[in-house]
Automatic annotation (TrEMBL):
The keyword Transferase belongs to this UniProt entry's keyword annotation: yes
Protein name: Diacylglycerol kinase
GO MF entry, a single one: kinase activity
Organism for this UniProt entry: Streptomyces carpaticus
Keywords of this entry: Kinase, Transferase
Length: 251
């Protein structure tokens, strides 16, 4: 990165500094040393809401997110909503507690600050497929229906939901028989959709639509990228092939 003259904007999520300030310092030092004097700018966010503004002022700088899964997802969503995601490759140094780094581990990023910083400097951009929904949002990792139960629900028996699931216009389940779970993830240009009920159905498709009243008729909830979403009575996800370019370690 430094040898190629690429300018770098390090965006530090405030949660990373609270959880592991030493790793944040290490990442900053390694990146500044590797990229070269005058090539690096650092922006310490005051809060999660400051992410869109920091990205809007990035200019021609390569953005390096220092933070956890939520920080990466906030950056991706902000760029998606501004229509700049395809033209703004990202890099990341994961910093956070282990449970908060499940998404980036799944993507193949190292979670050690030194190794991750070196991957930023010497790695290569890799296109990653995303799921774009009909509400203008985007999902980086897999999503699941229903959302996991909160602590006060864990002793309750979970019943199936009456959900209608369609993939590319093909009906997988008609909403009459209960469905215990639906999972969706983007991979190799298509969505891998798994519906679990009386039997398990697995297909690959360009888009998937889920509709249903959900518990109490208020709609269903789903879990995506470390957050619970919904309730909604209908949602369509479409694969955004190569929608994100993320700096990854060289093979």
């Amino acid at each position: 990165m430094g040898a190629g003259g690429e300018q770098v904007l390090i965006v530090i999520d405030p949660a990373a500094r609270r959880v592991d300030g030493e790793s944040v310092r290490i990442a900053r030092d390694v990146l500044c040393a590797g990229a070269g004097a005058g090539q690096v700018k650092v922006r310490v966010l005051e809060g999660p809401q400051a992410m869109p503004g920091a990205l809007a002022r990035r200019g021609s700088h390569r953005v390096v997110i220092v933070g956890d899964d939520r920080a990466l997802v906030r950056a991706v969503r902000a760029l998606h909503r501004s229509g700049e995601l395809a033209a703004a490759p990202l890099a990341m140094v994961p910093v956070g507690a282990a449970p908060a780094l499940a998404l980036v581990r799944g993507l193949g990023l190292p979670t050690d600050a030194v190794a991750a910083s070196r991957a930023v400097l010497g790695g290569a951009d890799r296109p990653l497929d995303l799921l774009a929904d009909d509400a203008g949002d985007v999902v980086v990792g897999p999503l699941g229906i229903p959302a996991p139960r909160t602590w006060w629900q864990r002793g309750l028996t979970r019943r199936g939901q009456r959900l209608r699931v369609e993939t590319d216009g093909r009906v997988l389940t008609d909403g009459v028989r209960p469905v215990s779970a639906v999972s969706v993830r983007a991979a190799d240009g298509l969505a891998e959709v798994v519906v679990r009920g009386v039997a398990e159905v697995s297909v690959r498709a360009a888009s998937v639509t889920v509709t249903g009243p959900g518990p109490g008729g208020q709609g269903f909830r789903y879990r995506a990228d470390a957050r619970d979403c919904g309730p909604t009575r209908a949602r369509t996800w479409t694969v955004l092939a190569g929608g994100l370019h993320l700096r990854m370690p060289s093979a």
